[in-house]
Specification:
It is a single chain. It contains 10 helices and 8 strands. By secondary structure, it is α/β, with parallel strands linked by helices. The protein has 2 domains: about 110 residues, 2-Layer Sandwich (Potassium Channel Kv1.1, Chain A); about 130 residues, no CATH class. The strands form 3 sheets. A 3-stranded mixed β-sheet has the order 2-1-3. Strands 6-8-7 form a 3-stranded antiparallel β-sheet. Helix 6 crosses helix 9.
Length: about 270
Amino acid sequence: MRFVLAFKAGADVEFEIPEADLKRHPETMLSVLTADRWTGSAGAPAVQRLEAPETAEDSWSDGMDAFVVAWYARTGSQAIELPAPAELEDAVAIADWLLLPLGDLSEITLGGDAADGNLARKVRAKTYIKLREDRAKTMVAITETIENAPKQKYRFIFLNRTDDATYINKGAEQPFDRFVPETWRLTAEQLARTGSGESAYEWAQCETMRDETETDLEGFGFEASWKRERVELSGPRGLDFPPSDLMSVYAFRQVLTVTLPEAEPASKRRRV
């Protein structure tokens, strides 16, 4: 079966997947498009065309068609290989769109020679995997904070290791919420489950991770948005007799605002 994937930017992509491979993975997007329950008695057309969603619009690169075809060709527990120069982060976006389960991302083999820049590609893949794992831990901390201290609005600030949360809150026009205490207060079990403020700070610098966090929180029924805010890290605030040359130090930090929306009227939540 031949497929054409259409993108707003760039040329369409064409590739072919054997029908036997499609039938071996019936719950994936491309298999569903060709299934009898979808195509009806007329059968599937010779070429299936699919428009890329916004989440995958910029994720298709050379090697991605070979990745998709190889994914379908796999049998049993055969390892997944990502050909060069396709990046793991992009492959995850494409797999999410086409409903291709990838399993443990650390077990995916990245093809290509070190001389072709593949070592840097492997490091980017490992970094991406760590950021995903750290973000998942932070989401546990954030959702537990929301459940344990319910209110209308939260302003979670993502602080660097050396930042003084107490001082920063003194200078803030609106107070910030913390989702994890200082690392030295955390037990090994807590660190393994919710991560640290430092690990949260690292992944919050990544736009992809921030977007995924918004999506997760909106899926839980909240409104969520990010803003890079200027905060006062240190200075004379709170000192009775500060030195005359002591100046305030400022920096930008990522702030996640989570808002609890009003419930819809009961009439809109009633089954018709």
